[in-house]
Amino acid sequence: MKRLLGLTLLGMILLSFLFPSVAISAGTPTEGYGILQVIGNVSKVSIGGKGTLKAPFIIILPAGNYTILSGKKVKIRAEITVKPGKWKVLMLNPPSGKPVIGNATILGTEITYNENIEYPKVESRFSPGFPSVGWGCGGGWAPFYWTDKPYPLSGVDKGGYTGEFLLNGTITACWNRGRREGLFYTLVGPYYQEGIGLKNASFVTPISTLRASSDVDPLKGYLFNVSLISMVTPFVVALPVVPEDVYNVSAVTLQGEQLVIPHIQRVTTYNISVGFDHYLLTATIELAPWASYSLYYNTSTIKNTVRIVEIPFDFEIPVIP
């Protein structure tokens, strides 16, 4: 790698002599640009807002944030910042093995490198502290454990390294040591979870469990953009699975009132990730109802996927008369 970086820097120096510049007065629109060079074992690279280019390439870009995409089976996403007067070398190398394996149906794997974000480092596994659930099966307090993209979900720490996500507007069963203790019409939002007790219902949302582990424990886990206290590898999370759209679900409350839910959307796919350093390793999975799954994240396969070198470069953009 050091030899590659040395050759890259040497190439940058030689290349600077190939682009004679024309003096530009201060304040012209050409100020505030940087250079992006992409190399590595990739053939095509997409730059957000700029199109797709054949790698390797060098491009002059306005300073700002850019999303760089590459890869087929395993997608690589690099979130980078091009700075004025800086030459940034981005090296992309797809992993040689499978970064994520397991018995779930893995629809896709994505490696995200964000140079402006460093994911929290977990020094050791500790007993999760204050749980989010506070009122038994029927309700709870869920600070920040909420997402509405792509589904309205709220999370609950259930004790130890086990969490559960609840889907808004569905019928949820409450389980205690393998026994169903009750049914609830579940309503969740950014700062609340509420359950309306039911006598019966024509459809109860199935639950599946997923165990996530990694080659380097402990790592912080994420479901879409949400992480529970309990989601530290290895952890278990229970997820609602609705195999098909369900319409006109009927139920009777404990007070004898009739309840009708016009539509419960299909929910079978989830993004489960682990984060470390500047990397987020994500598996998009498809689940079946009432099943148990496991995923194993091999982070050692992606540590060299993205490399960045940046040096100052005093240049002026050529002006064509």
UniProtKB/TrEMBL annotation:
<protein>
    <submittedName>
        <fullName>Uncharacterized protein</fullName>
    </submittedName>
</protein>
